[in-house]
């Protein structure tokens, strides 16, 4: 009788095959689905159909459900990706632009985030109510991004040093949640200009 093969199974001793790192094509499919879903929820066209998202992403509906077993799972993934982008964009904008221009560009990006949330409102409310998404943490991350830009603007004199970041958060929420038509609307642009005027030293 030949001795048992000492080579451990793929994935290592005691490690099931399902625990392996996802394949690159699977990660690409997931990213593509989130990208398409973000655009769909931000469009304001009404109910987003999951079959349409799968078709636009170039995958089958089965692939979508493997990554996101429910509509809620997809919405939460889109929300997380949007939040990461908008809160993480402040340092990059400050590297490219003066602080006042960086703040305005960031506000436009934040408006796009709010527009995407509007298309997912019902599902998000359920996620907030269940505790799967923590609302206070979202607001803290937004306010922290604003604080980063305000501090840099106070240093070079392009933004007022006496403004509380939380006050700016409240102003922007009032603007973007008041029923404007999205981040590219003329009205949103005018309101952002008014906020910038209030934040510019006299």
Integer-rounded radius of gyration: 22 Å
Alpha-carbon distance between the two ends: 91 Å
How many domain modules? Answer: 2
CATH homologous superfamily classification of the largest domain:
Tetracycline Repressor, domain 2
CATH topology of the largest domain: Tetracycline Repressor, domain 2
The overall pLDDT, averaged over residues, is 82
Poorly predicted spans: 1-19
Give the CATH level 1 class of the largest domain: Mainly Alpha
* CATH architecture heading of the largest domain: Orthogonal Bundle
The percentage of residues in β strands lies in under 5%
How many β strands by DSSP?
A: 0
Secondary-structure-based class equals: mainly alpha
Choose one word for the global shape: elongated
* Order of helical and strand elements: HHHHHHHHH
**Helix tally?**
9
The main β sheet shows up as: none
* Proportion of residues in helical segments: 55-70%
Q: How is this fold's topology laid out?
A:
Elements: H1 24-42, H2 50-57, H3 61-67, H4 71-96, H5 99-118, H6 121-130, H7 135-156, H8 165-176, H9 186-199
Helix pairs in contact: 1-2, 1-4, 1-5, 4-5, 4-7, 5-7, 5-9, 7-8, 8-9
